[in-house]
Amino acid sequence: MSFLMPYVRRFGKPFGAAILFLMLEALCDLMQPTLMSHIIDFGVAEKDMDTVFRYGGFMLLITGVGALAATLRNIISSHVALNFGTLLRSDLFRRIQTLSYDSIDKFDRASLVTRLTNDVTQIQNFTNGLMRIFVKAPLICIGSLIMAVRLNPPLSLVLAVVVPLVAVLIVFNMRIGFPLFTKVQQALDRVNGVSREYLSGVRVVKAFNRFDYETEKFGGVNDEYRQASIRVMRMLSIFSPGIMLTVNFGIAAVIWIGGVRVDGGQMQVGHIIAFINYMTQILFSLLMISNVFTMFVRAKASAERIGEVFAEKDTMTWKEEELARSEGASGSIDFKGVSFAYTGTEAVLRDITLSCRPGETVGIIGSTGSGKSTLVNLIPRFYDATSGTIQVDGMNVRDVEPSRLREQIAIVPQKAVLFSGTIRENLLFGKEGASDEELERAARMAEAHDFIMACPEGYETRLGQGGVNLSGGQKQRLSIARALVRRPSILILDDCTSAVDTSTESRIKEALRQYAQGLTCILIAQRISSVMDADRIVVLDSGEIVGVGRHDELMQSCLAYQEIYRSQTGKEVRANV
Length: 577
What we know:
By secondary structure, the chain is α/β, with parallel strands linked by helices. It has two domains: 2-311, Up-down Bundle (ABC transporter transmembrane region fold); 329-569, 3-Layer(aba) Sandwich (Rossmann fold). It has helices at 5-44, 49-98, 101-104, 109-134, 136-151, 157-200, 202-207, 211-263, 269-311, 372-377, 402-406, 423-427, 436-445, 449-454, 472-485, 502-515, 551-557, 559-569, and strands at residues 333-341, 347-356, 361-366, 387-392, 395-396, 409-412, 421-422, 462-463, 490-494, 520-525, 536-541, 544-549. The chain has a six-stranded mixed sheet with strand order 6-9-10-3-11-12. A four-stranded antiparallel sheet has the order 2-1-4-5, with no helix packed on it. The radius of gyration is 35 Å and the shape is elongated. The two termini are 64 Å apart.
């Protein structure tokens, strides 16, 4: 829970002010039964109207003070809880952004969404409750106990039996409830995961008419969530009535014992009424304390889940004193004996040694799963190599702050990712503050300008989430334009023209050839035609380099390249191997 300390320091003073007003409100509530007993015993019993009006006036005054304190407490508590929840959610989002891919992969994506939303809300609600009723309940309970004992010590023996029994019930409630609430949050993770997966792949579901399958899958996780919630509700349905029953037995005992003592002249009627009021306050306080512990258990489970994200150690480190050396980069890349394996898997890359020079276009080709995308993901430090070194402009990338390193690199990912907003806003992801001329120039090179201008609002056309109102080829061309706006030292194109027709791809490649003068361009492709005219072609097979050279050279010397050529063109190759 150490991640909460900065928020305690930040919101401690207004939180304390809310608690002070809450204590004043609780004190006003505690004074009411005693004043009532005085009205009955000294005013009503002796027919003294002056006493009735005097104590009645005190009750009205105290009620007004309590109402004012409650109003101020509500204003402060709402302000603190909402600001705390907003800040915690923002900090958690920023923390997730700073984690490396390797660290993020330890968490399910749906679980991260749940932690950002439901888990933060649970902690926010508990914080709000602390300043409203969660602190007031024990104050009322303890205060009522003290006032009841002072009022009539013999009757307080009933409390000596009731309170320990309720305490035992609350302890059992906590011990049983914590693991149950944790399972509820995990079940909610699975519901969010299935929902997220369906919504991202809704077109495929419609295309294959798999509604029944998806409905059944969602129904399964939804039913698991229902079952987990039912177990929690069953627990609450036992403990809350159990507490109420115990306290009500105590009230019945007070009435019986009090009646006997009044009949024997040992006690006044007003004391019984005041004692019953205190018992009622204790009843509702104990019920609320039970709810407090239930909320605490839920908030604790949520806090632990959020704490896991804050506690995640990012494996990426760098040398602060080396940052200045990464400026003015020219774009050279050197892989030296690089191997890489994802957590819990076999090596995806093995002993890769490769150099890319500034101004050079390097094509990378290989079968599916050969490690092409993984190789280029190591350059901007999305992952760190398991062994070996990667140098950009002669510097080990492990010595460079990732954000500074990535300023030199522009990537067009294999799957085009666009965001909700206008086309202009998406292009500005490449370079914040880029001029209209820069955006148009990049769009023209990516063969995107014409279809953008054909849209009703041109560059101000709004895109749905993920660019759902664009075709696959249009999304890829916008992704290319976004990268070109940046004017990087290193341009990585990860199979980014797979949804573009060959004539458009040819025009894009020609524009890139003019644009790429002086920068390093790495072109990953499945189609051999996309890399045939690269300065060098690297052939990957099962995570190893099996060929490097120009197209003509590889056609003579590399069996894997020949096989790719044969399978895509249908032409036989005459090899001199």
